[in-house]
Amino acid sequence: MTKAVIPVAGLGTRFLPATKSTPKEMLPIVDKPAIQYVVEEAVAAGLDDVLMITGRNKRSIEDHFDRAYELEEALRVKKDFDRLDSVRASSELAQVHYVRQGEPRGLGHAVLCSAAHVGDEPFAVLLGDDLIDVREPLLKRMIEVRRTYGGSVIALMEVEPEQVSLYGCAAIQPTDEPDVVTVTDLVEKPSPDQAPSRWAIIGRYICDPEIFDVLRETPPGRGGEIQLTDALRELARNGSTGGGSVHGVLFRGKRYDTGNKIDYLRTVVEFACDRPDLAAEFLPWLSDFLAERESGPTR
């Protein structure tokens, strides 16, 4: 496997007005845009052929992963080599390609837009709203599971009952490996009383190319969109031993959600606290700030 697909065509309405002209994927997590962390994760797992499914007003994403010769020259003249290296890093990560999703017809449609580029190969899908801790080799593990079992592989994380309606949830059966399950059914954003389990799909998938044929026949589902979950459900229910099987990796590590304002802010703070170059100054300030807020009324 060498190919990763990253859908970035969403409008980012939860972050308006900031995302009126700036893609939500370019919002910074400290000093790097969120999308760069996702590409770095793909590359760390050995996927250096990255296809982004874009939409209108996403040009700055392409610019970020391109060379910036004038900026690089200005930094070189100033002998600011640390910043020069950081600027060059994004353009040297991977071979990054782009295709436009003409209209917002759902995640399944976005993945279908990658068919010509992916061809008859298994590929990863990474959603930009989910960041996985760099110390967690989730994607590598999913690729290993694909090699062992074939078919498609999804990442599953246990959530609280009141959160199941925010995710696609899986009906699962154990295998001989404690972190691997067979997926027998999937339900997109079920009510708590209809959820087959508390194991929810997070934004990492390994897809068999058979998924394209299923997506072409998948009608619009929840929200009038073509759902990737519905196509994977069809494969899971078929239970075939080839491309149709679906397995899950039970992920118990650290995941950061940047899809809404509160979780985005939490992510920025956590990343800052984990940065050796920032933590020594930031953590004492944060502690003092919280103590001051707790001791008296805010201004």
UniProtKB/TrEMBL annotation:
Nucleotidyl transferase domain location is 3-266
Enzyme Commission numbers on file: 2.7.7.9
**UniProt-listed Pfam families:** NTP_transferase
Report the coiled-coil segments. none
Named from the GO MF annotations, one term is:
UTP:glucose-1-phosphate uridylyltransferase activity
Tell me if Nucleotidyltransferase is a UniProt keyword of this record: yes
Under which name does UniProt file this protein?
A: UTP--glucose-1-phosphate uridylyltransferase
NCBIfam families of this UniProt entry?
galU
Catalytic class of the enzyme: transferase
Q: Which family does it belong to?
A: Belongs to the UDPGP type 2 family.
Q: What are the leading ranks of the lineage?
A: Bacteria, Bacillati, Actinomycetota, Actinomycetes, Streptosporangiales
Keywords from UniProt, A to Z, are: Nucleotidyltransferase, Transferase
Q: Which top-rank group of organisms is this from?
A: Bacteria
Q: Catalytic activity, per the record?
A: alpha-D-glucose 1-phosphate + UTP + H(+) = UDP-alpha-D-glucose + diphosphate
Please cite one Gene Ontology biological process associated with this protein.
Answer: UDP-alpha-D-glucose metabolic process
Q: Which InterPro entries does this chain map to?
A: GalU_uridylyltTrfase_bac/arc (IPR005771), NTP_transferase_dom (IPR005835), Nucleotide-diphossugar_trans (IPR029044)
